[in-house]
Amino acid sequence: MFSKTAGTLLKSQSSFSIISAFEKMKWVFLFLNLIHLVLESILFTLSIESLGRVIISTLLMLIAFSYQYRWCFNTSRKVLTQFHGFKLGNIAFYTISQREFDYANIKNIELKEVHNAKKVILHLKDAQHTQPSKQASISLKVKSSKIPSVVQQLRTNLLSQGINVIGQFGSENSKEWPSFGSVALDQDTVKAFIGINLFNSPVKRQFPVTLFMLPLPSQYFHRVWTPSYISCMIALFIIYSSQNFIAAIVVGLFGAGISAVRRKLICDEYYAFGASPITEIVISEEYLDIPAVYFKNKQAKQIKKTDIQSIDIEWNWYKSHSGELNDRYREPYVFNLNIDVENDSSLALAGQSFDSEKFVIALCELGYSATLTQIPKTPMAWRYYILGPLVVFLIGVIGYGLYMAYFRLIA
């Protein structure tokens, strides 16, 4: 027999599960797909195409329903299982990640609020050689009015299994700074900026650069997106002429895929300049090795730590919007790392082209002087160029389905 608390805690006689905020997002997809399936059922005609659409919608709903990202406390086995994957009942047919911890190795579980996200954090005893990584935490999505009830249930169920619970939701990071301001880089600001459990692993010193993510000059913009323009026009024509939405989606995705491949080829040609350059940033206590792809003269440079006048890290919140729901998923996004070098021009490293968050940690740990500057810029703005047409497309499909259903009922 199962019982739920605010859709976040799931309890049975033999187990107690904490459901992540990310898993709960699947219900939005299920709701939209259910509307589509109902419309398909109303407009169903005995044909291979109609039957195929119904089967695809049903399969997608089944896959979405089976998605799980949760912690399960098994009271009989005395084991905590962190599961991320697809499971129906006790049968897991695809596992993305899974870790198990014996209760004897758990030091405590901490309740903490990080960047307005309610997090449950696992701490292991010192005898456990495997240190908990950043994945050893889970975010919860809870309405403000239900927080006391959820906290009480969490404490009661965990303490009943002999697991100590510390902290509380609402304990903000100790380091605060004003919006769109600058702060000096230190361990406190890094922890508040990126998150928790950052300093358990060795400092990363080598950062491969992804050429595909480097910015291209403006003259290449339309060359990259021309296949997408053409595929969108063909997709619109297919929808207008035959109302075959599946074919239109396939054509649109095909064009986007060609654009992605075209961008990679252009980036490889523009930045590799006919050779195989070293595309890796190296940081040490004495210097920074910056690959040639970041310089117009195509020459790699080694910058001594003593020659660096300042490092300014430009960032803003990713998925940061007003409203209780979106605030829970805030993550920092690094736009650029601007490095001013003595007797030399400044250098800008695009944050999306390498693991910039780990690079910020390395700067802090190796004693580089830097500042974190929040700027009023939207991270990954290209998301909206994809999300906007998708929303319009879904509204159009639902509207067309309702129109056809109404036309069929009155006919």
Walkthrough of the structure:
With 411 residues, the protein is α+β, with helices and mostly antiparallel strands. Helix content is 38%, strand content 27%. It has ten helices and 19 strands. A hairpin with a 5-residue loop joins strand 17 (331-341) and strand 18 (347-350). Helix 2 runs antiparallel to helix 3 and helix 2 (26-42) packs parallel to helix 10. The longest helix has 29 residues, at 382-410. The protein starts with a strand and ends with a helix. Residues 1-7, 128-135, 171-175 and 320-329 have low confidence and may be disordered.
Task: Outline the fold blueprint.
Layout: E1 3-5, E2 9-11, E3 15-19, H1 21-24, H2 26-42, H3 48-66, E4 67-74, E5 79-88, E6 91-102, E7 106-114, E8 117-124, E9 137-140, H4 147-160, E10 165-167, E11 182-184, H5 187-194, E12 206-208, H6 221-242, H7 245-272, E13 280-283, E14 287-290, E15 301-304, E16 308-318, H8 324-327, E17 331-341, E18 347-350, H9 356-365, E19 371-374, H10 382-410
Parallel strand pairs: 7-10, 16-19
Antiparallel strand pairs: 1-2, 2-3, 3-4, 4-5, 5-6, 7-8, 8-9, 11-19, 12-13, 13-14, 14-15, 16-17, 17-18
Helix pairs in contact: 2-3, 2-10, 6-7
Biggest β-sheet strands, sense, barrel: 6 strands, antiparallel
Order of helices and strands: EEEHHHEEEEEEHEEHEHHEEEEHEEHEH
Helix content: 25-40%
* Secondary-structure-derived class: alpha+beta
Please count the helical segments.
10
- Average pLDDT rating: 77
Radius of gyration from CA coordinates: 25 Å
Strand content is 25-35%
Question: Order of strands across the widest beta sheet?
Answer: 1-2-3-4-5-6
Any idea what the shape is?
flat
Alpha-carbon distance between the two ends: 48 Å
Q: How many beta strands in the DSSP annotation?
A: 19
**Low-pLDDT regions:** 1-7, 128-135, 171-175, 320-329
